[in-house]
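thought: fold this chain, then report.
action: predict
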Amino acid sequence: MTSRDDAFDRFIAGLYRTGLSLPPEGFRDWALRQLQQLIPYDGAMWGSGTAEQWRFHTVTLVGVDPDYPRQLEETRSINPILPRMLSNLDTPVDMEQVLPDREFFRSEIYRRCFGRFGIERILATAHADPRSGLLTILSLYRKSRRSHFTPAERQLQKRATYHLFQGASHAFFLHLMHAFSAEREAGGAAAVIDRQGAFYEAQPQFLDLLDQHFPGRQPHEFPLTLPPPGETRTEGRLCVKTQPLGDLSCVLIWPAGPLDRLTSREREIVFAVTQGLSFKQAARKIGVAPSTVANHLYRIYRKIGVNSRSELASLVYPGP
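observation:
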C-alpha cells in the first residue's frame, strides 16, 4: 500500500469517526481542510441548494471571498461547467475538459466571475437527490494557471467526494439521534432543514412519510408547518417536532397515534399512571391535586377510546 493510500484511508476513517466531536454546522469546513491534505488547493466551496432554483441555501468556503457564491449564482447562465456537471453527476469535472485555456481565459464567465476572484483552475463535482430536490456542489480551486489538476487528482476527488457527502450525512444523523432520543422508537424519521425550508439532509424514511401523506408535493418542498423548538404539532396524520441545530433545524416526523392527540399535561398523567402509580402518587410526582389526575384520566379515556389502565398501558408500551 502506498503512502497516498494510507493517507486516503486515514482521511476516510476520520470523516466517519468525527461524528459528535464536531458541531454539525462545522463539519464541512473541517472536512474540506482534511481534503486539502490529500489534494492541495487554494480555495474550496461546498454548497447546497435546490437544482430547480439554482440558489445556494448553505455554503461553506475555504480560502474564497465570501461574495463569490453570489457572483457564481448571477453568472450561472453563462457558466459552461454547470451543464457538464449536471449531466455527469458524482464525477469531477475539470474546466479544462469543458473549455480549452485559450477560450476560457478570454470568456465572459472568466471575466465576470472566476478571474475576479483569482480562480484559474477549477475541479467540481455535483450530486443531486431527486427525492429531496437537494443539489450539492463541491469545487476545488487553484490560483496559478500552471497548477493543473492531474488525472490522479481527479480520480482521488471522485473517491473522496462520495465519502465527504456520506460522512456529512452520518455526522448530522448522529446529532439527530441524540436530539430526538425519546422519539426514535416511535417510528419517527428525521431531516435537517435550513431557514428557507430547503432540505440539508433527509433520511429516506422521512421522504417516504412525506410522499405517502403528501403525494403531490414538489421534491424540494416541506409541506408541514414547523412548531416552535421542543414542541410537537399534529397536522393531518403526521406529527412534527423540531430542535435547533445552529442556523438549521432538526425536524422529526412520525405517524400520529392515539397518544399524539393528547395535550402535554394529559401525556404526563398517562405516563405516570401507566407506571403503576396511584392517583395520589401520580399527583405528587406531577405537582397537581389527585382530583386533577382523576378528571384528566376520565377525559383521556374518552378522547382516545380506552376503558381501563391496562388498555392505556398497551398503547404506551405496546407488545412485540
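thought: worth noting. The beta strands are 43-50, 55-62, 93-94, 121-129, 134-142, 189-193, 199-202, 232-235, 238-245, 248-255.
final: C-alpha cells above.
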